[in-house]
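Lay summary. Proteins are chains of building blocks that fold into shapes, and those shapes determine what they do. In this project we predict the shape from the chain. Here is one chain we studied, written as its sequence of building blocks.
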Amino acid sequence: MTKLIERRYYYEMRTLMLAVALAITVGGARADDAVTARSPALSLLGKTVGITVIGTDHYWDLRAYQGQVDEVRRLGGTAIAVDAGRNDSRQIAQIQTLISQKPDAIIEQLGTLSVLEPWLQKIRDAGIPLFTVDTATPLSLNDTTSDNFFIGEQLALRLANDIGGEGNILVFNGFYGVPVCAIRYDELKEVLKFYPKIRIIEPELRDVIPNTVQNAYTQITEVLNKYPEKGSIKAIWAAWDVPQVGATQALLAAGRTEIKTYGVDGSPDVVNLIKDPDSPAAAVVAQQPYEIGKAAVDNVARYLAGDHGVPLYSYIPAILVTKQNAAEVQKTLGQAS
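And here is the predicted shape, written in a compact code that computers can read:
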């Protein structure tokens, strides 16, 4: 019990610190702007940066990608940006092409690490500085991301407390090979050690790409038929928010809005669902993907300017969105219409 109290205290302190950091970020200046202001102006003039992303069909992916492309151009550089369309083989081919073009640096965004690592090694072997976005690997000089350890714990604690610390939950676990998803899932399991009355229904659900929303809708509908009694399922957890959309739609269609859904990313449509008082969507941790992409490019610029003290990880603040704060967070994140 002492460990649980310590984790809650840590959670509360981290929430306070990240809320302050987020307020600084969206208030007009990022948390590291004070340092930047004392440093020479960032520039990529005359530099070429390769950008490889596994896909841009999801809001988070597209915004992070746009942040990179826009920042390279803003700093006077040339971006060679390629989108693999959710195809591992295509991304590998695109990485090979980027290596042959010998850019001054390459930024890689997301993907299955076990597939990517041999090709990330080839980038390093070619003498090209490698930076990543949401891909934790020792081959990267810097990974710009959210603090997914905290995100996973924060979301899990919210879910556990919302359901009163007991009951059956459904978990989507289809992308454990993606490091950020693995971290969030592991943090969920770690938190649930302190809530022994919460049980994950087996087998766990597998989210897929493409057709994520439709697939999640179908899977949840099938499970609801197996558990028709209200109270037999308390919540649904996903490592990102696209399956949360499908799950929420299935609950609404079945009239099972007593079951709450939880996810990560904070796409505008999901934040809208959270804001709706009649929706079973209970919480999502909203990231700032555009700022993540922008910060990754800033790290590249610093490194190419001779600053080899760029940290291994750069964390951009995220915020837990609930029905109580959804409207305000929409304004904060620039999602309000």
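What the prediction tells us: The chain has two domains: 40-146+288-306, 148-286.
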